Amino acid sequence: MHSMLFVNLPVADVDRSRKFFASLGYAINEQFSGDTAVTLVLADNQFAMLLQRDDFDSLHPLETADATKVKECVVCLGVDSRDAVDTLVDQAIAASGTDGDSEDHGSMYGRSYNDLDGHSWQIFWTDDAA
Questions:
Q1: What is the pLDDT of residues 48-80, one digit of tens each?
Q2: What is the C-alpha separation between 82 and 86, in angstroms, rounded?
Q3: Separation CA 28–CA 18 (nearest Å)
Q4: What domains are there in the chain, each with its CATH number?
């Protein structure tokens, strides 16, 4: 049904966000990046566009949530293994992200972190055999 996904999130400092997510191993799509936006490649045709707050605010007439105080969404991303969950979340915390919640249901395992602007990223793995 959909050919591409862009999740748009406001950030206080595009350069700081670029460095943070690059340190986690995310590729940057420079075609959709610039002085006021950085676009993370999540997967084929799946992106997170991190927009300078002023530019994000101009997209719609509603007040933009402060993700450090109010959860506006949770970005959930699947990975290939339990170890990949731990590796990515541990890297985020080491790069100044904050630890979030965790769940372990045996065949489904997940942990989350909050990025530098308070956005919640849930990283999960599911055992397809189960």
A1: 999 999 999 998 888 999 999 998 899 999 999
A2: 7
A3: 8
A4: 1-59 (3.10.180.10), 72-130 (3.10.180.10)
- Tell me the two tokens of residue 9: 């999130």
Q: Specify the pTM.
A: 0.90
In the DSSP assignment, the letter for residue 107 is S
- The amino acid sitting at 14 is V
Question: What is the residue whose two structure tokens read 């943070």?
Answer: 20
What span, in angstroms and rounded, lies between the C-alpha atoms of 103 and 109? 6
Q: Which residue has the tokens 């530019």?
A: 55
Number of Cβ within 10 Å of residue 82's Cβ equals 16
Beta carbons of 37 and 55 less than 8 angstroms apart: yes
Distances 115 to 12, 28, 95, 112 between C-alpha atoms, Å: 11, 16, 9, 10
Give me the residues paired with residue 56 across strands: none
DSSP 7-66: EEEEES-HHHHHHHHHHTT-EE-GGG-BTTEEEEEEETTEEEEEEEHHHHHTT-SSPPP-
